[in-house]
Amino acid sequence: MKSEPVFRTSCGRIIDSLGRVRIFRGMNVGGNSKLPKSLSGQGASATDDVSFIGRPFSEDAADEHFAKLVSLGCTLIRWVITWEAVEHSGPGIYDEEYLAYLRRLFKKAETYGISIFIDPHQDVWSRWTGGDGAPAWTLRAVGMDISKLESCGAAFTRDGQKDAYKEMSWPLNYQRYACATLFTLFWGGDVFAPGFMIDGTPVQQYLQQHYIDAMYHVARRIKDCRAVIGFGIMNEPHSGYIGLQDLSVRDPRIIARGGVYMTPFAGMTAASGYGGECRPFTVGPTGLVTLGKNVVPPVSGGIFLRGYSCPWRNAGVWKIDTATGKPVLCRRDYFATAYGRSVDFLHDFLKPFQEQFIKTLAKKHRDYLFFIDGTIHGEYPLWRCSVGNDIYQPSSVIEREGGVVSDSDEYGAQTVCSFHWYDGLTLASKKWNALFTMDPVSFKPAIGKAHVQKCFTEQLERVCCQGKKGGIPLFASETGVPFDLEKDSEYEKAEEALSMYYNSFDELLLSCTLWNYNPDNTSDDGDVWNGENLSVFSSESGIRAVKGFCRPYAMAVAGVPCRMSFSQDEGVFEFEWEASALSPQTQLEQGTVIFVPSCQYPYGWMVECFDGVGTITERPEEQRLYIITVCARRCFLRIVPKKDNYSK
């Protein structure tokens, strides 16, 4: 008989094989996995001869790091890998030594009770386009010479820009030619570049199939790893040019506080060697402000290898005027329509790919959960799942949550809406102010700590909206804070920021994995990727701002969680839930489990109030509280510091 899945979804929640609702607190491990172990810095000029073995940490160090993660209350890891790490040597050539290394780490994770889902990570397509993700051969396969990308304005890297590089400017590469073109071909080559073939295969099919096959091969190699509960599909997928209304004007989706932008058309002409204009800018109180004009000089042949040319010129998007010899834009709205109507990137392009990914991996891994990212702009395709009644919950809860959702997707019951949420103002400015923030959508200011806290919760509620419509679980797979905040050498500001973020996660009963845990982080190099410094672990100082994220929470709930909160100032944790009736003989680990970290209670803790019927077992040495409820009813629990000896 087939064994029961470790986790499944029901009623918009993730539940375990015992029918308990799970709330996860975990980590992204780790940011250093974006780059090969054999390189330091961005390394965008490297060859295909690289290795990711040792990312995120060596096998010798695995026990140390897994034990540390468990001590922090981590029950789930979003494990970062890249397409390049798997298939860097060429199409269909997989790094079997790297995959064997991963398998050995995942088998070790089993012994610590840690669950893992694989995150096929990318940022702005690849290292050669300013980020990480795809192997170099994907750019060469569409005819690009990676050595010329920077000189033609088709991409920029931290190594190439050196002192001119602006912090947090790497997302601007989404608007640069190389990244935008690769993503457009990946999602919509059939529609926008018909006839573009690679080795006799349409470009869209070629790129997508290699990506899916690579991840399927990973799944095959780790098929016996019980710690692995599923896969992400792609981190922060970007639409490329798809959906742009006018190629002659600035892409309105710019997300950076400063840097240099090019219009899509200028990027196309510069990439083909004709040069183009680019504009330095900054973001002020009233919005984007341009700071003059620069010129990308002509480069003979542009970025294209012999025998290749711009696919958008071939498609008639632009041409060279025979009279003037200058580039002319012919179809400024070329990427705005598909299938005879306005383009719908989410459902015309992104969701079909997600469906194919899940269908392929689910052939042999029916028990996997699939964590589905939306775009970097916070848009999500709608996935529907029937609302079941197979967990401990009263009928009143089903009625309150709207009953059954119709028109379920085939794999809807295996999908989790994986979203990212950052406090944008703090992330961009690297300054923290608990008394002020601004809603990134309405631009409405929030003044005062209570209003700032409310603003964070409202932002998260808005992000969650689409997932709730489909009845699938919601999961914050990335959140975090920079650890190089202004005047924060002791990480007190970072701790306060994280504490407020987690207050909102608790209020909404959301699972989350913090970005990130990076064993290579140092004060000089940060996370060793584009100047970021968001790792809670530093190789120099250990765990940073620990009390901001290592807090009490309900790890597993025999019943339905209703309310959860923690006051760090007072050390008071409260939890309320609709409990299920368990047998008095139920093992402690099979009931409701509360994580109670010693860092928040250095002198011990006690249960001040338990309004319910059952038994409570306190095990401070395990940082756990176990509850066996023998009566189905609403229960309430309050944990407080031991009296007279609590020091904040």
Kindly state the percentage of residues in helix: 10-25%
What is the residue-mean pLDDT, rounded to a whole number?
92
Number of strands: 33
The helix tally amounts to 15
**What would you report as the Rg, rounded to the nearest angstrom?**
25 Å
Q: Estimate the strand proportion.
A: 15-25%
**Uncertain residue segments:** 40-45, 389-406
Numbering strands along the chain, what is their spatial order in the largest sheet? 4-5-6-9-18-19-22-23
Separation, N- and C-terminal Cα atoms? 53 Å
The helix-and-strand class reads: alpha/beta
Overall outline: globular
Main beta sheet: 8 strands, parallel, barrel
Question: Short description, anyone?
Answer:
25% of the residues lie in helices and 24% in strands. It is α/β, with parallel strands linked by helices. Residues 40-45 and 389-406 have low confidence and may be disordered.
